[in-house]
């Protein structure tokens, strides 16, 4: 391949290893084994992006027929714009040039986005809109089927991608595929059912995370902001007020139990009530119970069926 070529596509066995790849795989494995799935993928991308010194690390997923795709996870370096929420349920025809190589199990190393071929014009326009100078993309296969793509963006300056970087992403893609799509048949069925569950997007540090409503234990008001408690442990602060979250979250799963709190009924572990004692709910995985104020008690009992 011409050293000045604007892009290259490589099969896995054309990629030479490098000493740093062990660190990449180790960091991704640690993330995937230690955290809930969506958070783990975000942390894996954060580790990869930091180690590779790129501006974005991302993942998009295909639907069951590989006719549409959507961005699901993204990490961004400080000061780099996020685009994870831009392409949702987008037609694969938009990325047909890229998709062709991915479906052939090839990494696509775009060294110079500005000089991509005419056949890539639609995906090139999207990359330029995101201010990409260079893009590296690697397919994620599971059980012989193309399920997703992970990759890197360079926005501050163009990058001449190396085959070792592509190999590193190939190896990490294997880990992501097993974590995301492996498991028992029941788990795979659940994953397929949830694959296109609508996501709510939170800004986490320098990245943006798509969060399924089922992964939220509850939301509490923090003055003009909201504190989100997560099923995997911990909480994050969001800039939107509680009223915005009340409108965003599905009413069939969430309800207000206090003027300052919403809970996910699917995560209510216990309801403590008494004539002379304050009512509280215990949420799965949280040590401290949440108060239930009087106006919401009967509705809560009805929703819980008690």
Automatic annotation (TrEMBL):
SUPFAM superfamilies: GAF domain-like (SSF55781). One of its GO terms (biological process) is isoprenoid biosynthetic process. SMART domains: LytTR (SM00850). It comes from Pigmentiphaga kullae. This is LytTR family transcriptional regulator. Residues 200-306 form the HTH LytTR-type domain. GO terms for molecular function: catalytic activity; DNA binding; phosphorelay response regulator activity.
């Amino acid at each position: 391949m011409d050293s000045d070529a604007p892009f290259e596509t490589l099969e896995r066995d054309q990629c030479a290893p490098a000493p740093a790849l062990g660190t990449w795989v180790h960091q991704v494995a640690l993330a995937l084994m230690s955290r809930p799935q969506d958070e783990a993928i975000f942390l894996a991308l954060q580790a990869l992006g930091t180690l590779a010194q790129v501006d974005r690390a991302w993942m998009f997923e295909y639907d069951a027929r590989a006719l549409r795709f959507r961005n699901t996870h993204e990490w961004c370096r400080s000061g780099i714009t996020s685009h994870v929420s831009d392409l949702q349920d987008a037609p694969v025809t938009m990325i047909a040039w890229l998709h062709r190589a991915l479906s052939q199990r090839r990494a696509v190393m775009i060294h110079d986005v500005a000089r991509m071929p005419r056949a890539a014009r639609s995906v090139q326009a999207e990359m330029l809109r995101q201010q990409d100078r260079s893009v590296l993309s690697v397919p994620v296969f599971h059980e012989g089927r193309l399920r997703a793509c992970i990759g890197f963006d360079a926005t501050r300056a163009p990058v001449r991608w190396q085959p070792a970087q592509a190999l590193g992403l190939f190896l990490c893609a294997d880990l992501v595929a097993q974590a995301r799509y492996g498991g028992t048949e029941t788990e795979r069925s659940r994953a397929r059912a949830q694959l296109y569950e609508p996501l709510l997007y939170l800004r986490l540090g320098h990245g943006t995370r798509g969060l399924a409503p089922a992964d939220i234990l509850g939301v509490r008001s923090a003055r003009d902001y909201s504190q989100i408690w997560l099923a995997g442990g911990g909480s994050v602060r969001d800039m939107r007020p509680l009223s915005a979250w009340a409108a965003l979250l599905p009413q069939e799963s969430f309800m207000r139990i206090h003027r300052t709190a919403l809970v996910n009924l699917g995560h209510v572990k216990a309801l403590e009530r008494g004539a002379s004692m304050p009512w509280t709910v215990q949420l799965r995985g949280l040590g401290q119970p949440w108060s239930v104020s009087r106006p919401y008690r009967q509705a809560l009992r009805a929703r819980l069926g008690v």
